[in-house]
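A quick aside before the break. I want you to see a complete sequence-to-structure record at least once, exactly as it would be stored in a machine-readable document. Don't worry about memorizing anything.
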Amino acid sequence: VSETVSDYFYQQNPEKKRENIIRTQINGIGFDDGTLMSQLAGSTFQQHNFCKNYLNLAGKDFVSPIAGTWRLSYDYELEDRNARVNGRTCFKISFKPKRTQDLAFTGTMWIDSESYALCQIIATVEPTANLNFIEKVRIQQELAPTEANGGWIPVKNRILVNVGQLTKGTAGFLAKFYTSNRDVQINKVYEPHFFDEAITLNDDVELKDDNFWAQNRHDSLTVAEKHVFNMINDVKKIPIVKNYIDIIDMIISGYYKIGDIALGPYIFTYANNNVEGNRIRLGFQTNPSFSNRVILGGFAAYGTKDNTLKYGASADYILSRKPWTQAGVSYSHDLNQVALLSDSYNYSRNILFTAFSRFGAITNRRVFMQDMTNLYIQRDIFKNFTQKLTLSHWTFNPLYHFQYYDQVDGQIHGDFSTTELQVESKWSPGVHVLQSPKRNKPLTVKGEYSNPVLTFRYTHGFRGVLESDLTYDKFSLNVMQTVRMGILGRGNYSITAGYIPSTVPYPILENHLGNGLFLYNKNAFNMMRFFEFVSDRYIALQYAQYFEGLLLNSLPLIRNFKWRLVGTANVLYGDISRGNIDLIPNNSVNNSVLSSRGLSSTPYVELGYGIENIFKFFKVDFIHRLTYLDNETVMAGKPAKFGVKFSAQIRL
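That is the input. The structure line, written in C-alpha cells, reads:
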C-alpha cells in the first residue's frame, strides 16, 4: 500500500509534464525502495486521457471510445438522454468492442448535454481481450471544468487491475489505484527549464508523520485499506513468502542475492563448445546494501578441453546522481569471436543470444583470446542527453590461422593489439529517468509517446600507445523508434549507418551480426551466417511490425488462441574497400571467405512473418532470405533460403 502527495504540472504545447513528490509512505512485501515505488505509482504514470485516440495501458494502445476512428472499433447505444451527474444533464451512452478480442473497452460514458464534454466514464477491458495475464482492467473517471465554459480535466480517477493466475495453483493479485486532483490552476507560465526534470522528490519525502497525512489526504482511508496495512505486516513474518520473493527476484534479475553480493548471471554458468569443452563460469556483483555508490563485480570460467582459466573483474563508482555521473574500470581475459564483434547498438541487450553463442562449433566464428581493459566515464549532460567516453586496450590472439600485412613496418603479423578512445553521444527524448539513493542504476521508463532515440559513436585507434599496432577512425550513427500506428499496432525500426575510412584488419571492421542459432534475435540478420559479411561502409535497416490482434482476431477458432501476427524486414547495404581486402597476404583468406563477404550494389535482404503469444510465452518466426543465395563459403557452403527461428518472451 502506498500513498503519494504531489504537485503535478502540465504544459500542452509542446507537451511537457512535471511531478514534484512532496511526501510518500509505503508498506509492502518484496521491495525496500519506497522512493522508487512512489515515482512509479505517482501521478506521472496514472493519468489517462480518453480525449486522445489511444490510451497507453501496460505498453498496449487501447482505442478510446471517443476516438476519431470509433466506427472501426465500437458499437454504441444511447441509454438515457437526461441522466444526471453532479447536477448536470448528460447523455448516458454504453459502448462495446465490435470484436471481443480487440484492445478496446466495454462500458458507459456520460456526455454533458450543453458542452458535449466527457463528464464521467466507466471503461472495462474484459478477459476476452487479446491481453496476457491480465483478466480485467477497469477505469472509472470523473471530470470537471477548470472554469466556466473551460476545458475539462479528471478530478477523480480509479483504476482496478485484476492479474490472473499464471498457472494452476498459483495466486493472482488485484491492484487498485486512486488518483485525486484538486486546487487546479490554469494558464500559468513557467520558465523554459522548469520541465527539464520530469519527477523530483522532496528531501523529507519518506518522513513518517501521521498528522501530515490526516491534513493532506484528499479522502480518508477505507476500512479495507486499513486492514491491508495490518495484513502486510503479518504476511512479512511468514518464511515461505520471503522464499517466494527471493526466487522471483532471481528469475527477473538473473542473480541470486546473498547478503551484500549477488551470484550470477546464472544463465552463463554452463556452456559447451568445440574449443573449451564444458565451460563452467561463476560470477558475482555487489548489491546496494554493500554500497550505494561502489559496484564491484567479477567472474572466473574454466574449460575442460582447453584447460584454460578465464577471468575478469570490474569496479564502478557513482560520482553524482544529479546529474547522473558514473565512472568505472574493468579487465577481462576470455575467449571472444570475430563473428560477434559487431557494433550493433542492441546486441548486448540480448542476454539469451549471448549465452547460447557459447555453445556449439564456435571455431567457424573465428575464435580468439582477448585481454580487454576498459576505463569509462558517463554523464547526463542535460535532460535525456548522455555523453560517454571509453578508453580501451585489447589484444587479438587468434586460435585460427590469421595474418595481415602491416603497411607501416611492411611485415606480416599473426596478431595485434589496439588502444582506442570511443566517444558516444545518446539523445533519448521522452524517456523518464527514475533515480533512488537505494539503487545503483537509474530506472528508465518510456513516456507515453515514443520519440526517436539517436546514438552517435566515434572511435579512434592510437598506434604506439600501450604498444598498440593500429591507427584508425570509425564513425557510426543509429536511430531507433517505436511508432504507434493505431489499429495497425506498433512498428519498431532501427537504422544504423557506419563508415571506417581507415585500412585495418577485418576484426576492426564491421562484422555484421548473423545468426546461426535456432533462437530469433531481433538485433541480428537471422538468415545471415556468422562471419558472412564484413563492411567498412554500410547502412542497415531492421524493422518489425507488431499487428497485435489485427487479422487473427477475426479468424474463427484462431482468435480463441489470442495469437498475434508479426512482420519483419532486415536490409543491409555496404561495401569493403580493396585496401582492406589486400591486407590479407597471398589471398589465403580472401579466396575462401573475405571476397564473398563484400556487399555489391545489391543489398542483403531478408523478410519474415511470425506468430507470437503461443501459449502466452512463445514466438515462431518464418524468414526468407532473398539475396546472395549463391554466396558459397568453404566452411558453410551455400546459405539456406528459408529458416524457422524460435524465441520466448513475456509480453502483456
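Two observations worth writing down. The chain is about 10% helix and 45% strand. The first strand starts at residue 2 and ends at 11. We'll return to this after the break.
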